[in-house]
Write a structure and sequence with these properties.
The complex is a heterodimer. By secondary structure, chain A is mainly alpha-helical. Chain A has 2 domains: 51 residues, no CATH class; 237 residues, MetI-like (MetI-like fold), CATH 1.10.3720.10. Chain A has 14 helices and no strands. Chain A is flat and about 85 Å long. Chain B has 2 domains: 185 residues, D-Maltodextrin-Binding Protein, domain 2; 215 residues, Periplasmic binding protein-like II (D-Maltodextrin-Binding Protein, domain 2), CATH 3.40.190. Chain B is 48% helix and 13% strand. In chain B, the strands form 4 sheets. In chain B, strands 2-1-3-12-4 form a 5-stranded mixed β-sheet, sandwiched between helices. A 4-stranded mixed β-sheet of chain B has the order 8-9-5-10. Chain B has a two-stranded antiparallel sheet with strand order 6-7. In chain B, strand 6 and strand 7 form a beta hairpin. In chain B, helix 11 packs across helix 12 and helix 11 packs across helix 19. The chains are: A mainly alpha, B alpha/beta. Chains A and B meet through helix 13 of A and helix 4 and helix 19 of B.
Chain lengths: 317, 446
């Protein structure tokens, strides 16, 4: 057997005779299906089946804490109830506020950091590592850690603000004030996830070939012109990808909010995933919460699809 | 004859099995282990100590599954709803009794109590009503009262005793600075201490529950609402709540709680429950702290703020009296494979001797043999207050939908008290509408 012999032939010859006999009657397509079948079965079992089951439950009065109760169909009552409930718009607004500001800040700061880090300077490797640390921490650690930082009597955050502004540290409560609490969560999420956006933008910046800049230099393009006409368009698909990832992640934000404010004060920071958890696992309104989950799923899926189409259009430009 | 000989070994085996089968439960139970599930807190440690006697007597080993309070309900109700076999015995919260009974999670104990001579009349009536009965007021028992508890108060006796503070308070209010008996007195004392510097540290008047996620703020505000006249329903017409939940007295009570929260609590405690209260009190931030009696034995033993430095008082009164009921009953889980051993634990736990030791170790017995003992009120500095509190306790709904009812109140109260949304009347009207919706869904209201 020569080393230049095609790999497929060598693999076929290496197949044990009994197995080869069994496979002989199968077409290539059948073998391909045989290989992907376990994955398909697993996907159906852990993704598709629960989704179909959730859709089914959303049309019933099922409650997981009352398994003995009679199961009855309620039609589209849950959907109507959710879409006409003024209380559900509070969490939706809180989620929208959180999404808009975290994505805006993370994209701006993340891109700026990536742009600065991309310049070759002494110790840039060390700085990159340091900047990446927050995203490597567990959200549970970050949540508890910032809850202490925000403590008005002993928290470092309040002391830092006091140091720079002269406002007494105990005079404001980041997590207890209706006005400040939504921003407190935005700050923590931005602190934690900006490095992630930076990393994606950095990959984008490093993928731009140097010769394009060299050609621009020859054409005497200014630094601003190079940034506007080369850097930004070429890195835009990466930025859009980062926005997509962060958008999907933050739409379902639960851990940080749960640890920092638990949706409070009052319901000020109750994002929609906290509402969903309360309906499903505290109030045990399984049917109702299934309907809410489906509505959210359709919203995220729909928005993500539109966004991906836009992303592809930018990439193909 | 040959046939008889052939059958003899089988008959002998059967006879041996029968003899073994009729052997004592203790012999059967030897080497068995049962698991008791409860919240992770001071009394749970006392129960571990107490249960060693049970193991010594019955040779049944005890395993414990203690879950921190904020996750206790989630964890345990998930366990019960999924018919899990983790817990043989569970000391579940009083509000769970309706749901657990109707869903078949707990074993009904009436026949067992009758067989073993365990009488509910041996326990304090409020604890039987609160921890054992479902439906309420009927002799259907799903738990044995295990841990009596109510919301009470502890205060810094050493601060109250400072002569300069005594003189200043007397001059201002024309009475001694002492543990308050009414809510009006309470507010005077709380305002008096707030913002004051004691031992070189800025202190505040009081600590109140404000927790949003589970039950904290509801428990706290109820302690003010009950004495001020709030009622869950018309005593003559169950589930008729109009004019009771949102009565003028209830509105006044809710406004009072908010006023206390605004004037006299330390900053930053906007989502705080038992643990945060203990921290605030132990670190010398507050003069008075609301908390469960269950924590008072541990607090009294604290080397820094315990002993003679602190005193205890029952929930202040207003138009009437009332304290929020805490505490739990012990139940046998229906899905337990060790039901007989679990029942034998309850039988052992119900005896007066064990109940006396339970109190001595730091648990709060509900047995009359303990509570009506002439020496009881002197047995601990908080014993007399506990007895008074247990005489005036009121509990939250214990219906199967209690969680929905509780979360609705958590939201409405927190929105008003902490987030400054709307008025007290709007909060209680909203709460009434939420509760009506839940009871309508349950078919209890038309």
């Amino acid at each position: 057997m020569s080393a230049t012999e095609p790999f497929a032939i060598r693999a076929a010859q290496a197949t044990p005779a009994p197995l080869a006999r069994r496979m002989r009657g199968l077409s290539d397509r059948a073998i391909a299906w045989l290989f992907i079948a376990p994955t398909m079965v697993l996907l159906l079992a852990i993704n598709i089946f629960p989704l179909i089951w959730t859709v089914r439950l959303s049309f019933t009065n099922f409650r997981a804490n009352r398994p003995n109760a009679t199961l009855a169909g309620v039609g589209i009552d849950h959907y109507v109830s959710i879409l006409t409930d003024p209380d559900i718009w509070g969490p939706m607004q809180a989620t929208a506020h959180f999404l808009f500001w975290t994505i805006t800040l993370q994209t701006l700061i993340g891109f700026t950091l990536a742009y600065l880090i991309d310049r070759k300077f002494r110790g840039h490797g060390l700085w990159t590592t340091l900047i990446l640390i927050p995203m490597m921490l567990s959200p549970a650690v970050v949540g508890n850690f910032w809850a202490f930082l925000y403590q008005p009597q002993i928290g470092l955050f309040n002391y830092a603000v006091s140091f720079f502004t002269g406002i007494p540290p105990s005079s404001f409560e980041m997590l207890g004030s209706v006005k400040l609490a939504p921003w407190a969560i935005v700050i923590v999420d931005t602190w934690m996830w900006t490095p992630y956006v930076m990393l994606i933008c950095l990959a984008g910046l490093r993928s731009i070939p140097d010769y394009i800049y060299e050609a621009a230099e020859v054409d005497r393009a200014s630094a601003w012109r190079q940034f506007w006409s080369i850097t930004l368009p070429m890195v835009l698909p990466f930025i859009m990808l980062a926005v997509l990832f962060r958008g999907i992640e933050n739409f379902k934000m639960f851990d940080l909010v749960n640890l920092l404010t638990n949706g409070g004060p009052g319901s000020t920071t109750e994002v929609v995933s906290i509402t969903l958890k309360r309906e499903a696992f505290e109030k045990w309104r399984t049917g109702y919460s299934s309907a809410l989950a489906i509505i959210l799923f359709v919203a995220v899926f729909g928005l993500a699809n539109i966004y991906v189409k836009a992303l592809n259009a930018v990439k193909n430009r | 004859m040959r046939a008889i000989w052939k059958k003899l070994p089988a008959a002998a085996t059967l006879a041996a099995a029968a003899v073994l089968g009729l052997g004592s439960t203790a012999a059967q139970a030897q080497g068995k282990t049962i698991t008791l599930c409860w919240a992770a807190w001071d009394p749970a440690n006392a129960l571990v100590e107490l249960s060693k006697d049970f193991t010594a007597q019955t040779k049944v080993n005890m395993k414990f599954e203690f879950v921190p309070w904020p996750n206790f309900a989630d964890r345990m109700l998930n366990e019960l709803n999924s018919k899990g076999k983790l817990c043989d015995l569970i000391i579940g919260d009083s509000q769970w009794i309706g749901g657990a009974a109707e869903s078949g999670h707990y074993v009904k104990l009436n026949d067992f109590f009758a067989k073993e001579g365990i009488k509910m009349s041996d326990f304090m009536p409020a604890t039987v009503l609160g921890y054992s009965e479902w439906p309420k007021g009927t002799p259907n028992y799903w738990a044995l009262p295990a841990m009596g508890d109510a919301l009470g108060w502890t205060y810094r006796k050493d601060w109250f005793a400072k002569p300069e503070l005594q003189a200043e308070f007397k001059k201002k209010h024309n009475r001694d600075l002492a543990a308050p008996k009414t809510w009006a007195e309470f507010k005077d004392v709380a305002e008096f201490f707030s913002g004051r510097t004691i031992d070189g540290k800025k202190v505040y008047g009081t600590y109140l529950f404000t927790e949003r996620g589970s039950e904290g703020i509801t428990m706290g505000v109820s302690n003010v609402l009950y004495p001020m006249g709030f009622k869950y329903q018309d005593p003559k017409k169950p589930y008729a709540m109009d004019g009771f939940v949102n009565s003028a007295e209830a509105v006044k009570g809710l406004e009072f709680y908010k006023a206390l929260y605004k004037c006299c609590t330390p900053p930053g405690l906007t989502n705080s429950y038992m643990g945060e209260g203990l921290d605030a009190f132990k670190s010398g931030q507050v003069a008075m702290m609301m908390n469960w009696f269950a924590f008072f034995p541990g607090l009294y033993k604290d080397p820094n703020v315990g002993g003679e430095k602190i005193g205890f008082f029952v929930n202040p009164s207003d138009k009437g009296k009332g304290s929020q009921l805490g505490g739990q009953g012990i139940s046998v889980v229906s899905y337990s494979p060790n039901r007989s051993e679990a029942l034998s634990y309850i039988k052992w736990f119900a005896t007066p001797e064990v109940q006396k030791k339970w109190w001595a170790l730091g648990g709060y017995s509900c047995h009359k043999a303990v509570l009506q003992d002439p020496g009881f009120t002197k047995s601990a500095p908080f014993a007399a207050e506990f007895l008074t509190a247990m005489d005036q306790v009121v509990d939250f709904w214990a219906d199967p939908s209690y969680a929905q009812l509780l979360l609705a109140e958590q939201k409405r109260i927190h929105d008003f008290v902490v987030a400054d949304k709307g008025t007290a009347k709007e909060a209680l009207d909203g709460l009434l509408a939420d509760w009506k919706k839940v009871f309508k869904e349950d078919g209890k209201l038309k």
